Amino acid sequence: MKYKFIDNGMSAVQGIKSSGIHGGLKKVKKDFAIIYSEVKAAVAGAFTKNAVKAAPVLVTEEHIAASNGFCRAIVVNSANANACTGKLGMVNAKEMTKIAASELQIEPQEVLVSSTGVIGVQLPMEIVSQGIKKACAAVLAGNSSSDAAEAIMTTDTFPKETAVEVEIDGKIVRLGGIAKGSGMIHPNMATMLAFVVTDAAISPDILQKALLEAVDETFNMISVDGDTSTNDMIIVMANGLAGNKPITEKNADYQALKEALSALCFKLSELIVRDGEGATKFITVKVLNAPSVEDARKAARSVTTSALVKTAIFGEDANWGRVIMAVGNSGANFNPDTVEMYIESNGGKEQMMKDGMGLAFSEENARKILIEKDISLIVDLNMGTAEATAWTCDFSYDYVKINADYRS
Predict the structure, then answer these.
(1) Quick check: is 85 catalytic?
(2) Sheet arrangement for strand 340-345
(3) Mind listing the pLDDT tens digit for each residue in 152-175?
(4) Which CATH superfamily is domain 4-274 in?
(5) Domain 282-404 is found in CATH 3.10.20.340
(6) Where in the chain is the domain with CATH 3.10.20.340?
(7) End-to-end CA, the chain
(8) Which of 162, 191, 218, 284 is catalytic?
(9) What is the model's pTM?
């Protein structure tokens, strides 16, 4: 059975409960979330590549190592990143896990912690303590993936959640996830938070391999503005309640689960890009016939991070030279004399370049293509069989307005 998308986000997964509440870090909106497994779960994570890592990232990495890859809960706050906060920030991040552990009656090292928001401000721990307790009470009393998705938002304009199911070893396995992200999005664990849960039975080391493969194909192929945050992470919890034979190697069951995980991660990635700060266009960059996958990824990523490309798409200007410029800056191995390039959307398709040279094209047709909301930029290197796809959005006037006023 191929995976299929289903409703209810994380709430679709057996033995998983979640909550999101308003605790006082924000004026009105929800700002604390708890994700809780009723039984011990294998855990895997991928984290920011930024040299400046926030305290919750460091504490979460420590707890995963200390627990040999198992956990029970994740506590998340928005509105404050607890980044660049020194020793006190580490103390406060650990205290968050202790408070949640006490309320849920589990061990502190079984709790992972995540924060998002303004950098360089200490957490008001009295508010944080009460917020975590309230969120834990909510998760023990009920279950709301949508509330949790809302509670982790910062500049997001809508909550992001999805779920899939797939048959493995004759059992129905479900995966659910939430994410936040709108700005400061860039490859190397994009600038975002994502939390995925599944009832699959799988060992922590194999789960980690599946996660990294999925991240490379999805979250690491999106970009909004070229900035990688201090707090980025994706965590996957697998509690085994689906009852499948535990996956302990890369076999057919592994491939089925990884395919479903990649599909879920792609959907969350797509939602993040579509919600890019001030975005008006969703841009897909396809690089075809490259010498290697790495060359294809380099070229595609370079196009998605080019401010000149993104502003041209916002202006609906068929300035294809900016795309080729970005490919040339990527470090990918290719021969400029063999390159072809196209633009495509529901408005049609137009070839802009062949054999490394520009073609005469219809400005009217190009305008019909670029006026659409979903645009594809296709670059064919004609040097091999590898390909890659990356995703981004345009740069609009509103992006500057949003980030100029972020702290207010």
Answers:
(1) no
(2) 222-223, 386-393, 282-290, 374-380, 340-345, 348-354, 357-358
(3) 998 888 999 999 999 999 999 999
(4) L-amino peptidase D-ALA esterase/amidase (3.60.70.12)
(5) yes
(6) 282-404
(7) 49
(8) 191
(9) 0.87
